[in-house]
Amino acid sequence: MSTPLRTPQVIGVASGKGGVGKTTVAVNLAAALGQRGHRVLLLDADLGMANAQVALGVRSPLNISHLLSGEKTLQELLVPAAPGVQLVPGASGLRDMAALDMSQVATIIHAFDALQESVDYLVVDVAAGISPSVLTFMAACQRRIVVLQDQPAAIADAYGLIKVMTQDQDLEEIYLVANAVQGDAHGQQLAQFVNDVTLKFLGRTVKYLGCVGADEIVQQAQRKYRSVIDFAPSSRAASDLRRLAQALEKLPPLQEPGGQMQFFMERMLQAQQAAT
Q1: Model confidence over 44-73: pLDDT tens digits?
Q2: How is domain 9-266 classified at the architecture level of CATH?
Q3: 79-82 and 207-213 as β-strands: parallel, antiparallel, unpaired?
Q4: How much is the pLDDT for 48?
Q5: Residue 1's pLDDT is what?
Q6: Could you say which DSSP state residue 130 is in?
Q7: pLDDT (tens digit, 9 = 90+) per residue, 67-119?
Q8: Distances from the Cα of 272 to the Cαs of 2, 7, 62, 253, 269, in angstroms?
Q9: Average pLDDT in the 182-197 region?
């Protein structure tokens, strides 16, 4: 009997609105985990935009649309993107990919069951907002990161996303990452404000994972199509992003499959059976 493949930790990265650095956090979190010796998959699920591959300077003739059409398997889509990181490319500029129905989202999620390789982390970069596909992807993850900045609209939309995930889907394991802040005290203050509002109106709490300080090097890295971790490893932003990766490493593994669709569900079930 073959040894069951390791069940990866699945991290969804979302934001209530665009332009707050969601993809920057997702891409660099994957890069930082890869640099720390983990085997990482990065799914560009911001379908129709495909910003993750742009941020990493990756060019591939294949994308997730070839999986949905049945032309390619998920394994065939994987492309090396950074040390220890393989990317599942999204489909840039395809209108149909920006509005997937639930059967198509389910096809993508279930495709991960067929992968026959060891993976430590899957980072899922979803689109901004609260569309049905975004919520389904986030529900299929084990942990969920909400990226926000200290702007009224970003805070309001982050709260709206948290409200839908907690009230409509009853999801737990929601973490805040404060982006482009002046320091950790500023990030903690912002996260505490959101948590206070969430507790008052929803009766739920969210956790603070960490922050990324405002740093113009982020834009410079983007213009060079490289992760901050690779482009400027000694920068303030890179240091903060590595701390986010370390914070994730310290969280206890989650292996229990929920009642909804999950990435790597087959591996979870095999691990559960092996433990009994």
Answers
A1: 998 766 688 888 989 889 989 899 999 999
A2: 3-Layer(aba) Sandwich (3.40)
A3: unpaired
A4: 64
A5: 40
A6: -
A7: 999 999 999 999 999 999 999 998 765 555 557 888 999 999 999 999 988 99
A8: 16, 10, 34, 13, 5
A9: 96
Packing angle between helix 152-163 and helix 184-202, nearest 10 degrees? 50
Which residue blocks in the chain are alpha helix, DSSP H? 22-35, 51-55, 64-68, 74-77, 102-111, 132-139, 152-163, 184-202, 217-223, 228-231, 236-250, 265-275
Residue 90's closest CA among 117, 56, 114?
56
Angle of CA points 195, 251, 218, to nearest 5°: 70
Structure tokens at 237: 């932003």
Enclosing H/E stretch for 123: strand 121-126
pTM: 0.95
User: Which amino acid, one-letter code, is at 183?
Assistant: G
User: What strands lie across the sheet with 79-82, from one edge to the other?
Assistant: 79-82, 85-88, 40-45, 121-126, 9-14, 143-148, 174-181, 207-213
| Domain regions of the chain by residue span | 9-266
